[in-house]
Write a structure and sequence with these properties.
heterotrimer, A mainly alpha, B alpha/beta, C alpha/beta, B: alpha/beta, 10 strands, about 40% helix, globular, C: alpha/beta, six-stranded mixed sheet
Amino acid sequence: MIVLSRDWLLSETPVSRAQAAWVRRYRGWLQFRTNGLAMVGLVTAAIMIFMSLAAPLLTLQDPSAQDLAGRLAPPSWQHWLGTDELGRDIYTRVLYGGRITLGMVVAVVLLVAPVGLAVGSIAGYLGGLADRALMRVTDVFLAFPRLVLALAFVAALKPGITSAIIAIALTSWPPYARLARAETLTIRGSDFIAAVRLTGASSFRVILRHIVPLCLSSVIVRVTLDMSGIILTAAGLGFLGMGAQPPMPEWGTMIAASRAFILEQWWVPTIPGVAIFVASLAFNLLGDGMRDVLDPKQR
Amino acid sequence: MIEIAALSVRFGTIEAVRDVSFSVERGESFGLVGESGSGKSTVLRALAGLNRNWSGRMTVGNEVLAPQRSKDFFRRVQMVFQDPYGSLHPRQTVDRLLSEPLLVHGMDNIERRILRGLNEVALPAAMRFRYPHQLSGGQRQRVAIARALMAEPQVLLLDEPTSALDVSVQAEVLNLLMDLQQAHGLTYILVSHNLAVVAHLCGRIGVMQAGELVELLSADDLRAGRTRHPHTASLRELSIELEEPETSL
Amino acid sequence: MLVQIDNLRIRFPTPHGLSDAVRNVSLTLGQEKLGIVGESGSGKSLTARSILKLLPGNAVITADKLIFDDIDVMSADEDAMRRIRGKRAGLILQDPKYSLNPVMTAGEQIAEAWRIHRGGSRRLAYRAAIDLLVQVQIRDPARVAAAYPHELSGGMGQRVMIAMMLAPDPELLIADEPTSALDATVQAEILRLIEDLVSRRGMGLILISHDLPLVSHFCDRVVVMYAGRVVEELRAADLLHANHPYTRGLLECLPALSHRQRRLAVMQRDPSWLEE
């Protein structure tokens, strides 16, 4: 029976695998909690995610509702963060925009991490021809600057969120493959892997059930730290008109559309910029904190 | 039971093991001693199937070994490694570690076998869901031995199983290995640099130096000093000199 | 008296509060060779390192007396400690692979140790380094001085470490399992070398090991530690007449090459040992 009391979570003698796993997680959490900046990152990220998801509850306005008479209005009781160049409420657009931006980030991560992990661990474990082939493919993708390839890809397809996600994913996965491969090479020679090989387990089983779990920590840390980069790339694409298209309230697109007003109605492009900054920073701090907890030194 | 003939192992251009031959009877304990770099662990690992770059002929039971081992081979031959801190997967509980061989070989009654395994190596059942970092060196080594026995092997290859342990724990583990051998009729090949440990557990001993097997002798002969090769003699002298506490000033 | 330790206590924070790693340890060292013997977790390394205040940052140390020569280590600040470490007391660790800088040659490292504490030009320091390599019985000092640590065998790496530690001419040498990673043949040579150098220079030696017979060969006195406490202190020559059951247990559970045994004696741990 799982009773999440403090005693159960600090138990020295767990009575089931589930409890053992929870004990380990709880200790990791206790350690994470001591890092002030990491907690700031975690709380900020959590708040942002919550606010984006709860957008319809936090604002009664429609992100696309235009009010040309009241355009470029400064913050007021009616429009908490003012209105943009088409009279749309900025606060509402930032909230809904969060869904798009954070949604894109999650989509990219879900594509990129498993692929990178698989390619890297298979290449690292099997070595030889498989390793060389997979790494050459990785190198090809690594050779392209992220934004340039994304632009080219999006330009070839139809500009839009889906293309942007695929384009960012295509350029983001190689570092994960490299990371997984490096970890696998280190782990591959250890005695506990030798012991598993001595059970006659297939390579697939060894990689999936014994090597990948050990690579996960580094990948998780890398993912969290990468999120800020992905946010910036998505915003960059949006800014260049290649990502989310107007009237979608994606933060980068918002900046692009209103950059002409930066001198007089400075809040219109600045507020989405602040949102991007806060999101990036939060994930960075979170990633740093997770690295301290999940670091291989701790193993 | 085990026949090794003209075994040579290469690492790149270096020949780590050169033309080694010996045989081990069923139920016997055979020891391989030598200094670091003598190739003794390499022989063991080649026999275990962890190394493919060998030439020569190896036979276990009636099966001549091929570079790619069959799953059946892994049910008959198992290995215990030197470093208790490295031979257990850091993210798996003892329970998971012990069930892995059972799952791979498709054995039944997993629960009962695990409990029996822990009992045989004198580990309390409360240890079952601990992670390796929560166990002492001696406890980890017991888990490693239990894991090796899960597949019900006939042969146990022991690579310096007690070198990394405290002396009091070493004594317990050596006694345990003796008991298990008697209980299950196991055949041991024990590799160690510690002559006293090898002579205690093994009946016959092979001495290796720089990749070659320089002498084969019985433990009694080694004890009594009836050695033929100078390297064996010098190893023996050192061991005796350093093992008794000095009592004269 | 080179070292005086009285009622040393070292504790570490855990989720359940402060936990004792070393408790109620007292010992003294003159110009002699002292061996501290214990199994893992006995606190022997921590005790020796407390003299140099080289403990992990979260360690809580208390002692009635912790004195190195005339310096009160307990109240000394980092500057004072830095003047002791290396210059007046050296520390040799177990594996030269991890304690030598892999990107500097052996000669450079010894020369650096010399220059930090004795000053002088680089050339002078390098020549002193070669001379030290001769003193640690390396037959080809010029070649070894120009070699990188990964090109040296374990035994040679350890000799380089010893040379580095001796460069500033310290009064105390702490050797923490200096030969545990080495083969038996090399082990004996290195220990004899340490013994010889320490005697000739009139230094004090603290030799930490898990190997009781080994320590008895190379030390004048032996302190046996168990679970953070000292359980026995005796002259090396009297080891076979040890009183404490733990010490006797350590002696009896060893397999001996000279005579055959049916089963090895197993240590019966008595909880009362923890209360002393």
